[in-house]
Amino acid sequence: MEVALSNPKLISLAAGFVDTDSLPVEEVKAAIDVVLGHPQQAKLALQYGTTQGHPPLLDWIIQHVSQLDRIPSEKQTLSRKNVVLTTGSQQLLYLLSEMLLDTGDIVITESPSYFVYHSVLAGVGVNVLTVPMDNQGMDTSELRRLLERIERAGELHRVKLIYTVDYFQNPTGLTLSAARRQELIEIVHHIAQNSQHRILILEDAAYRELRYEGEELPSLRSLDHTGQHVIYAGTFSKPLSPGLKTGYAILPEDLLEPLLRLKGNHDFGSNHFSQHVLTQLVTSGAYSQHVEKLRTIYKEKRDVLLQSLEEHFGNLSGVSWTQPRGGMFVWMSLPIDMPTSPDSPFLKAALKEGVLYIPGEFGHVSDRGPAPTHEMRLSFGSATLEQIREGIRRLRQAFDSVPCGQQAATSLN
């Protein structure tokens, strides 16, 4: 992010910024005018709020996520005792890790996974184990085998959390399939029934609403009929505005009070004014209209990125990329002898050409041996359509300028 912001001529396909031109300036201004236009509401918005969050917004979140999961109101089981607002979803990830995990505990993630959360886990001192992914998301068969090995070693009690970005994952763009969602829930239920040990699933749904094609898949939270095993993490940053810096969790009721005590020690509650503004945006319909607008914008960007990759890299063997149905990321693999690491000739060549990506090894941890070094994450969130086209052209120029790339291109001629 720092490199991208410091060099305006550099085309960044790295940082996971949202589309700047689509930020809802007028909608937020109108919402602020409403909030400040009523003296009593204005005073409430400018005063301290509660640690848990603004009650009308908590109620809307319950209704909204239930609608996404197609849960009828008569079957609704959630209440305010299941919801908390946080300063972005990143604060939530940190608070949950501090609350739930001790040094030596085990957390299982996908591989690759959201690398910023890896830093949080490293700070807690936990042991991160990983499960490979394919085009259906986390391989739940591999997860079963991993848990069986842990149980045979007498370490199952140390497994506290399974972390998954199950919609249009950061960094790969892949989505956990319907069948694997059900299997993941069955795995933790089975362990609870047979070992009396609760393993929590942290479902990071940051990109859920940025879906461009395919059916709406149910959340893991909605599939957990016990209500005891899933923490659903959502955010307003990706579908609306990161500047409002508001995320939320839907979690088992017994976790709310300890989380609020910890959060209270941090900040006494997240930005109260932003919560009032958000409440106006969601209740006025401006939020849902903006999400629909973003879906159109990002779908076009994704399509242009995929078309550009096909145009410039489609003739190369050993090169592949994911085909995300939503979100903001594409995961690209180069020939195994073409490192994309921070100190690699390819990255240096890319910077010389004026394009930046995220080295794929950042998304891996070392539990399965040395991390792959020939992958990268490409983000189409903040770049314009022309920048995407030009950025991929520059990426191919960088590829051709490195000896391994020259050999790969020559072998096809």
Fold and architecture overview:
- The chain has 2 domains: 2-16 and 289-411, Aspartate Aminotransferase, domain 1, CATH 3.90.1150.10; 38-284, Aspartate Aminotransferase, domain 2 (3-Layer(aba) Sandwich), CATH 3.40.640.10.
- It has 413 residues and is α/β, with parallel strands linked by helices.
- The strands form 3 sheets. Strands 2-9-8-7-6-3-4-5 form an 8-stranded mixed β-sheet, sandwiched between helices. Strands 10-11-14-13 form a 4-stranded antiparallel β-sheet, covered by helices on one side.
- 44% of the residues are buried.
- Helix 5 runs parallel beside helix 6 (115-124) and helix 12 (286-313) packs parallel to helix 14.
- The longest helix has 28 residues, at 286-313.
- Helix 6 (115-124) links the parallel strand 3 (106-111) and strand 4 (127-134).
- 46% of the residues lie in helices and 14% in strands.
- The chain is globular.
Strands across the major sheet, in which order?
2-9-8-7-6-3-4-5
CATH topology of the largest domain: Aspartate Aminotransferase, domain 2
Q: What's the number of helices? A: 15
Order of helices and strands: HEHHHEHEHEEHEHEHEEHHHEEHEEEHH
Key phrases:
Aspartate Aminotransferase, domain 2; eight-stranded mixed β-sheet; alpha/beta; 413 residues; 15 helices; Aspartate Aminotransferase, domain 1; 46% helix
In a nutshell, what does this entry contain?
With 413 residues, the chain is of the alpha/beta class.
Topology:
Blueprint: H1 2-6, E1 11-12, H2 25-37, H3 39-46, H4 55-68, E2 83-86, H5 88-100, E3 106-111, H6 115-124, E4 127-134, E5 137-138, H7 140-152, E6 159-164, H8 178-195, E7 200-204, H9 220-223, E8 230-235, E9 247-250, H10 253-267, H11 272-284, H12 286-313, E10 320-321, E11 329-333, H13 345-353, E12 355-356, E13 358-359, E14 375-379, H14 385-401, H15 403-411
Parallel strand pairs: 1-12, 3-4, 3-6, 6-7, 7-8
Antiparallel strand pairs: 2-9, 4-5, 8-9, 10-11, 11-14, 13-14
Helix pairs in contact: 2-11, 5-6, 12-14, 13-14, 14-15
